Automatic annotation (TrEMBL):
It is found in: Nucleus. The lineage of its organism: Eukaryota, Metazoa, Chordata, Craniata, Vertebrata. Residues 90-419 form the USP domain. Residues 971-1024 form the Ubiquitin-like domain. Belongs to the peptidase C19 family. Keywords: Hydrolase, Nucleus, Protease, Repeat, Thiol protease, Ubl conjugation pathway. This is Ubiquitin carboxyl-terminal hydrolase 48. It holds the Pfam family UCH.
Length: 1057
């Protein structure tokens, strides 16, 4: 079934089948512009009919018709939703990953004694600050920040406040979640150091009074019974929970006796020797606030990182610590006052919340950053926190808890408050912690700012509502006027503009009809789908209120465009009939004395070319699609120009002009009859209707004389090149076939002089010899590439035996004579040998080069190569996995001259001494780039004379030999070993902490060191051995989050004290 849009398109132009272009009338024009289509009624269209300019349904009017709730006129939340409700607490904004900070701040805020004492701290900066001043109060010290934050939490009108001042002062990274337990210890220590600077003794000692307890580490010698005691202060007890279900079991293990035996024996001062002993912890005094840290985040020795223990622990609401004290008669009963929760499976992610008991009302509250929830019935409720993010299906079920007990697998800190007598408790609950006047003024200033913001938001809401109501009235007024009645004046406006006018979220711009114009300045027939026909009365209201141009009324229907379209469409219909006729005519034989030449490619694609040519005039008059809500014509002109240029380039590339495929470069008939075909005059006349400007060649037309002359010259040149190649190959047959080649390792006895040429020259010459008709002949040797700017030779004897052999070729003197005859020689280079007699009548060979070695340039080259080995980027190295505890064999690093293709070839096996090696001087790829040798090949250079004291050894290939279990990686010299281990992890699925790496026989252990500093150079082979896999691979999820070394609170203000 045809789409309605296509049906409307065909119906608009169906009349052209019976109407010639010269007979087009007004009724045909209106049909083409679809003026007479029926307008759609509301409810009949699911969406707007773009093919019908009279359809005004589904353009966004449904949001305005009928009654509208005024809240739809704005997107501003009620500012009162940000206001603190009566008898509620204030939340804290999560700045990214600072929920762990917020939980402790809420716990410490609800410690009334701590809060009241902090208010007593001297704060001259706050006291001197003018609350009426426009400048904001900026605390400096940690104590000042905490004072101001507590004052806001107590008396602010806001539902939540921003703790960024304190977080910034501590230097915390808001995007990095840290260890909450470590933060608690460091912050209390920092706060205590800060408060010690205060003059008031009660302020100085508040941290110790609230959180400080005393214990002793007691060691008893089993031999003499001597007891050694070390006193220590603590702010919390760190309890191991692994293997336990009850809090009391954790405390018991914390205090249990430990045996010191074997290698762990204790040195007794009395016995003056190491003895078996016992060690345990004794509790002497407990603080008013007892913090019990449940060690859920432990170090996993298998993975090398932290993990979370998601096991249930049962803890009581009332706990008696008396049995655990050194003095058993001491009464130490504590009641639960806060539970800190970590929701999540991993130790490196998750979310922190706090359940805190109000000291006055005994109600429990859940503090979740900005959100605060009061628990019903004055009871602690942890159920919902325990149902989130189960680590696995095998997770144990939540055990049943007795009355007065709670079970949690996410609690990581329990805060207990010491019980006191009822009279004392009653008096404490009646304590009213007052915010000092100097802080209250700052709080009131912040409250005024908040009220001003609320008033501003309310006013913005009111303005949006008023604007929306006015727009509602305007839409109801104009939408009823939009439909154009039959016989009444009408105009066209853009559909997109109408939609944006009905969309209250965008600003309505002026009306721009310029992009819908044809080349005659009227409405283009193809653009009727992008406009709507409305009444002239409605259009006048639009243009008077929103401005714009040009206005397109009934006179904007373009007669010229309709007539041209009629001609093109009729011609397209005729095209199919002509195609059938021509296809049959070209099969008939044609007399060679009559007819016309047509390119075979043009004849195959003439129908497609004709169609594209017929569409060309339409495309020239079309505007590019653009925005219809105020975009200027200059932008459209630029778009049209760019599109036109691109189209011209595409046409030029595709060579779409008919019969130009048989044109030569001089404009004449091409000489190749394989590319053209002779057709009859009837066929040519039919084609000329579609291609009146096509090149025309009658059957007697002579091919281009210039092309014929050039063809003869090419044939002569090919013959000459073949003769040259044959002469050169005959004279230098051994060089071409790589036979009987001289080597420096085994100097030939028949000559004391060898000549040197660039291997690049030899490879280019061989290409010409193999394909003389397709490759240009080589004219010159070009030995200057082997010399320095001073004219000195750049290679040593040792380097020519090793890496530089890939850059040079050795010639016999007879070959050099032939080279000198056939080619231009810019600089002869030769190496000669002579025997120098010694005292014991044994001879040492000396080798000389002419030109002599340039020592300065050679050393500069080696220095550059050494630096390049340490400063490479995007280089390939190979990771070879070692299995079954096989020995790691030290292997020399590959030479710098090894190319990328060489690295893929196999390493050649060493040959026996004296064995011929004819390929030694030849390169596999003949690379054009002149590469130089490994710096290790020239360890001592003093002159151009080289002395050899022993026979040359066997040669070892420098090409990399790939083995099974090896993978190539792309690395840079400045990346660290840790980053390389991450790459290896992705390649071999082995975590970094299970990787053992070595190169050249030494192990790589410093994760922070760069590969360049560790001696890893391009093409290095790094041996990799993996440790035994761990049993629990769920820890691998954490590996991706801890790729870089964990730094904790390094660099923050928490360690600044």
């Amino acid at each position: 079934m045809m789409a309605p849009r296509l049906q409307l398109e065909r119906a608009a132009w169906r009349w052209i089948e019976s109407v010639r272009p010269e007979d087009v009338k007004t009724e045909h024009i209106e049909t083409a512009y679809r003026i007479r289509l029926q307008a759609c009624k509301r409810g009949t269209c699911r969406r707007n009919c773009k093919g019908n300019p009279n359809c005004l349904v589904g353009i966004g009017e449904h949001t305005w018709l009928g009654e509208i709730d005024e809240n739809t006129f704005h997107n501003i939340d009620d500012p009162n939703s940000e206001r603190r409700d009566k008898n509620t607490f204030v939340g804290l904004t999560n700045l990214g990953a600072t929920c762990y900070v917020n939980t402790f701040l809420q716990v410490w805020f609800h410690n009334l004694e701590l809060r009241q004492t902090l208010y007593l701290c001297q704060n001259s900066r706050a006291e001197e600050h003018d609350a009426e001043d426009d400048t904001d109060y900026e605390p400096q010290t940690i104590c000042e920040h905490l004072q101001y934050l507590f004052a806001l939490l107590q008396n602010s009108n806001r539902r939540y406040i921003d703790p960024s001042g304190l977080v910034k002062a501590l230097g915390l990274d808001t995007g990095q979640q840290q260890d909450a337990q470590e933060f608690s210890k460091l912050f209390l220590s920092l706060l205590e150091d800060t408060l010690l600077k205060q003059k008031n003794p009660s302020v100085q000692n508040i941290i110790q009074q609230q959180f400080g307890g005393q214990c002793a580490y007691v060691t008893v010698c089993n031999q003499c019974g001597r007891e050694s005691q070390l006193l220590s202060r603590f702010y919390e007890l760190e309890l191991n929970i692994q293997g336990h279900k009850q809090l009391t079991d954790c405390v018991t293990e914390f205090l249990k006796e430990e045996k010191l035996e074997g290698d762990n024996r204790y040195f007794c001062e009395s016995c003056q020797s190491k003895q078996n002993a016992t060690r345990k912890i004794r509790l002497f005094s407990l603080p008013r606030i007892l913090n019990l840290q449940l060690m859920r985040f432990v170090f996993d020795r298998q993975t090398g990182h932290k993990k979370k223990l998601n096991t249930y622990i049962s803890f009581p609401e009332i706990v008696d610590m008396g049995p655990y004290m050194e003095r058993k008669d001491e009464k130490c009963v504590y009641e639960l006052s806060a539970v800190l929760i970590h929701r999540g499976v991993s130790a490196y992610s998750g979310h922190y919340i706090a359940h805190v008991r109000d000291a006055r009302t005994k109600d429990w509250y859940k503090f979740n950053d900005e959100e605060i929830e009061k628990m019903e019935g004055k009871k602690l409720q942890l159920g919902i926190e325990e149902d989130i993010a189960e680590p696995s299906k095998s997770q144990t079920r939540k055990p049943k808890c007795s009355k007065g007990f709670h079970c949690s697998r996410n609690s990581y800190m329990l805060v207990y408050k010491q019980q006191v007598e009822k009279e004392v408790e009653k008096s404490q609950s009646e304590i009213n912690v007052q915010v000092p006047d100097f802080l209250q003024k700052l709080v009131e200033k912040d409250n005024r700012k908040f009220e001003e913001w609320c008033a501003e938001m309310a006013e913005m809401r009111k303005q949006s509502v008023d604007k929306g109501k006015a727009k509602h009235e305007e839409v109801k007024e104009i939408y009823e006027l939009l439909p154009a009645e039959d016989g009444q004046p009408y105009e066209f406006v853009p559909l997109e503009w109408l939609q944006k006018w009905l969309d209250d979220s965008t600003v309505t711009k002026s009306i721009d009809n310029s992009k819908f114009l044809c080349s005659h300045g009227k409405l283009h027939p193809d653009k009727v789908e992008d406009v709507k026909r409305i009444s002239q009365k409605a259009a006048t209201l639009f243009f008077s209120r929103y401005r714009g141009s040009p206005r397109l009324d009934g006179s904007a229907l373009c007669q010229k465009c309709v007539i041209e379209r009629c001609r093109v469409l009729r011609l397209k219909n005729q095209l199919n009939e002509d195609y059938k006729v021509i296809s049959n005519l070209v099969k008939a034989a044609v007399d060679s004395n009559e007819g016309y030449w047509i390119g075979k490619a043009s004849l195959r694609s003439w129908r497609q070319l004709a169609l594209e040519q017929l569409d060309e005039k339409e495309e020239e008059t079309r505007h590019t699609n653009g925005k219809t809500n105020g975009e200027g014509s200059a932008v459209l002109e630029a778009q049209e120009e760019a599109l036109g240029n691109r189209k011209e380039e595409e046409d030029a590339e595709q060579n779409l002009h008919f019969n130009e495929d048989i044109l030569c470069s001089h404009g004449g008939l091409c000489i190749s009859e394989m590319e053209r075909k002779l057709v009859s005059t009837e066929v040519w006349n039919r084609l000329k209707v579609y291609f009146p400007k096509a090149p025309e060649f009658i059957s007697s037309q002579e091919p281009c004389q210039k092309c014929q002359t050039l063809e003869r010259e090419d044939e002569e040149n090919e013959a000459l090149h073949k003769m040259m190649a044959n002469d050169q190959k005959t004279a230098l047959l051994n060089l071409f076939q790589d036979k009987n080649r001289p080597t420096l390792q085994k100097w030939p006895q028949e000559s004391d002089v060898l000549y040197i040429v660039s291997l690049f020259f030899v490879e280019e010459w061989k290409k010409f010899i193999r394909r003389p008709t397709r490759c240009n002949p080589v004219s010159s040797v070009g030995n200057s590439a082997l010399l320095c700017p001073h004219g000195g030779f750049m290679f040593t004897y040792d380097s020519m035996i090793k890496g530089d052999a890939k850059l040079i070729a050795l010639l016999w003197p007879s070959e050099w004579d032939a080279i000198s005859r056939f080619f231009l020689v810019d600089q002869p280079i030769k190496v000669s040998r002579r025997i120098e007699k010694t005292q014991n009548d044994t001879g040492n060979y000396e080798y000389h080069t002419d030109p002599e070695l340039c020592l300065e340039c050679r050393e500069g080259l080696l220095f550059q190569q050494q630096r390049d080995l340490r400063e490479y980027t995007q280089a390939t190295i190979y990771i070879r996995k070692v299995v079954d505890n096989k020995m790691i064999v030290k292997e020399a690093a590959p030479d710098l001259t090894m190319s990328g293709s060489d690295a893929e070839d196999e390493r050649e096996e060493p040959k026996a001494e004296g064995e011929s090696d004819p390929d030694f001087n030849q390169s596999n790829d003949g690379a054009k780039r002149q590469k130089l040798s490994n710096p290790s090949t020239a360890t001592s250079i003093s002159t151009s004379t080289f002395t050899v004291h022993q026979k040359p050894g066997t040669r070892r290939s420098i090409r990399h030999r790939k083995v099974r279990g090896e993978k190539a990686l792309i690395v840079s010299a400045n990346q660290t070993l840790k980053e390389l281990k991450i790459q290896i992890m992705h390649a071999f699925s082995v975590a970094p902490f299970d990787q053992n790496l070595s190169v050249d026989g030494h192990y790589l252990t410093d994760d922070s060191a760069t590969l360049g500093s560790l001696g890893v150079i391009p093409e290095s082979v790094i041996y990799f051995k993996a440790d035994e896999p761990i049993a629990d691979y769920t820890a691998m999820d954490d590996v991706f989050q801890v790729c870089m070394p964990e730094e904790g609170f390094k660099g923050t203000g928490l360690l600044g004290h």
